[in-house]
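Weekly structure sync, notes
Attendees: PL (lead), two postdocs, one rotation student
Agenda item 3: pending single-chain targets
PL asked that the sequence for the first pending target be pasted directly into the notes so everyone works from the same version. It is reproduced below exactly as submitted, 478 residues in total.
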Amino acid sequence: MELLFLSLLLLTILFLAFSVHFFTLKYKRINGAHLPPGRLGWPVIGESVEFFSMGRKGSPEKFITDRMNKYSTEIFKTSLLGEYFIAFCGPIGNKFLFSNENKLVASWWPRSVEKIFPSALQTSTIEESKKLRKLLPGFLKPEALQQYLGIMDLTTRRHLETNWTNKEVVMVYPLVKSYTFSLACRLFISIEDPDHVATFAKYFHVLATGIISMAINFPGTPFNSGIKAAEIIREALLKIIKKRKKDLLENMISPTQDILSHMLTMTNESGQFMKEMDIADKILGLLIGGHDTTSSVITSTMKYLAELPKVYDEVLKEQREIAASKEPGELLNWEDIKKMKYSWNVACEVMRLVPPLQGAFREALIDFTYAGFSIPKGWKIYWSGSSTHKNPKYFPDPEQFDPSRFEGIGPAPYTYVPFGGGPRMCPGKEYARLEILVFMHHVVNMFKWEKIIPDEKMIFNPIPEPAKGLPVRLKPNH
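Predicted structure, written out during the meeting:
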């Protein structure tokens, strides 16, 4: 017992010594700087506990709004994930950051991301971002997405008929995650085998939770579980990559079949092909981005349509008119998608109230000033939709669900930012729009539903999800 006590005492002393050293070094770098108001919280931990706990309680925006009310509606400082942060607030702050991408600020991810994605350590975050964005436009722009529409339509019908039809009760969130993940596997890497998909799927939630967590690599921590999940998925992806390379060499498939084939056949300025591990990490990231956020939006949409029968009736009316114009078995086309204006307004209002991502991280590339305050080089920056999405200044009666906010020219610039903005605007925006609308079309035409847990809350982990999976009671919609 005495040995245990001495060991704990030694660990405590070492932790305090490291904390003092860590903060002394950082304070030396900012001595004399006119920093924004705010507090930095505990050594190393900062305000991370409060930041994440508010999300798990279902009100992540409270972290931002509380500090806006206490310190400044424009900007404040805090400390998260072992880093000093400046939070930019409001549409002016959003515009400033989006307009100065790769000039004053650049994309930044926590150390946990770098450790889970080893290839990211080989180059800068800016270079990795540029690489990925060169790969995506050809596959995710509206013209290319039209080719995927038939696959989306068939996949959605098959999913609903197999997993929803003739069921009295379903758990919406896990089913929707299964649907969006299967679709991403089909479109990004041409994998339809249920066993392959199942191998990936069961590890992806663990991985997503570990990515945005404290980088504490001890057994049982979210970060440690995330690393293990990533290794399992990456190993399976490498097997797929090796087989795809063989098929491409033997001209068994087209180099333009999907994003994976494109990555395997493209070269850099020096004529070098991408490394297999690099490709695996990029596909891993795309599969996360291609299903987690859209799963959240579709599930939240199902929640609001259950709670708001008048909104549901308007969506159903619009989608039935489209269905009535089709021949039996005829697939949706691009013109049908363009007619889904009210349905998309509903989805936009869902994303205003429950954005699939609360915000994003940046890093100051140089010393600069904003709103009269110093932003030191190397400090991290956080922007969040919470500072505008629920602000009555920009959205009157902000808790009221009102799709008409998006009619005409819609919200004021830089107030509605679920997909970010500027050069870093989410490249998958149109893909998400298409996936959400195709699902809405079929689910309302096939079913009505009611929530089994009326007061079920949404938690943020970090993606918004219903605390109990959103169980609903289905009724066929004849």
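Discussion points:
- The two ends are 71 Å apart (CA to CA).
- The chain has 19 helices and twelve strands.
Action: rotation student to compare against the earlier draft before next sync.
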